[in-house]
């Protein structure tokens, strides 16, 4: 479903990666690993069309998304892409349910009701917390709200940047299980991580070696 073909990216004279190719099939979870600064977040940003490549292509469902113009980019982000950022990207001064409703409005419109939200919240261990204000939640709880938002949106490509970073091991397991369920439902999931535990739960690993 995702074919990353011969991509390269530099910042100034510093090459992060080049001649990099890999595939993520629908239903697969791939770990993106490498030393701090090797360019994992940058690669996810390129795959999410937040950052341009220097060369190469990223083919999703047969289309090179890096050639998309503004309208097609918007539709790709809205309909296909689920992004789990390191900073959660939640609306802090709003309820948990409102944050899920925003995701539903952008993607899976039919699952906008509170029942669907409650199912998603329960599956990340936050059942009954829909009316809580996001700014009152702990970092780990916010991280799981961001995951519940993905479950509501039902994207087909999921890019996750250190999704277990702020979590204890029980909650990390909850997150990995939820991502696995998304894969089982047909998603292609890419997870940038320093965690050996997360890596061992993925189907394959792509290692970034600085300057390769
Ligand atoms: N817009 C930018 N301009 C210049 N340099 C940048 C830019 N974005 C990232 N970098 C640099 O590119 C390198 C790779 O950063 P990136 O965040 O992708 O690494 P990473 O592998 O995700 O690191 P970590 O594991 O620490 O999160 C870093 O040295 C960073 O400073």
UniProtKB/TrEMBL annotation:
Residues 2-211 form the ABC transporter domain. Keywords: ATP-binding, Nucleotide-binding. Signal peptide: none annotated. InterPro entries: AAA+_ATPase, ABC_transporter-like_ATP-bd, ABC_transporter-like_CS, ABC_transpr_LolD-like, P-loop_NTPase. The keyword ATP-binding applies. It comes from the Bacteria. GO terms for molecular function: ATP binding. The keyword Iron does not apply. PANTHER family: ABC TRANSPORTER ABCH.1, IMPORT ATP-BINDING PROTEIN. This is ABC transporter ATP-binding protein.
